Amino acid sequence: MKVNDVVQFTEGHKWAGVFGIIEEDKGEGHPRRYMIGVPIPQSGTAYIFDDGSHIERIGEAVLVPGEEQDE
């Protein structure tokens, strides 16, 4: 799995069935840690960390929020 992949949390996880986007891969250490952004309507984004054992890759996000740039 890589940054911008769309994932779904699997059964047994607190967020089971919810979709998110991998926003950051915290490295290849053991255990691996992915930072997954889950959009919450009218509340922003929740960030959940997972080692990859509770998520399933669905595909790659086409539109992702960009970082703000100073002008």
Number of domains: 1
**Percent of residues in beta strands?**
over 45%
Order of helices and strands: EEEEE
Largest sheet: 5 strands, antiparallel
Low-pLDDT sequence parts: none
Number of helices: 0
Provide the structure class: mainly beta
How large is the radius of gyration?
Answer: 13 Å
Q: Please tally the β strands and state the result.
A: 5
**What is the distance, rounded to the nearest whole angstrom, between the alpha carbons of the first and last residues?**
33 Å
Summarize it.
It contains no helices and 5 strands.
Q: What does it look like?
A:
With 71 residues, the protein is mainly beta. It has one domain. Helix content is 0%, strand content 45%. The protein contains no helices and 5 strands. A 5-stranded antiparallel beta sheet has the order 4-3-2-1-5, with no helix packed on it. The protein starts with a strand and ends in an 11-residue tail after the last strand. The mean pLDDT is 85.
Which terms summarize this structure?
71 residues, globular, 5-stranded antiparallel sheet, mainly beta
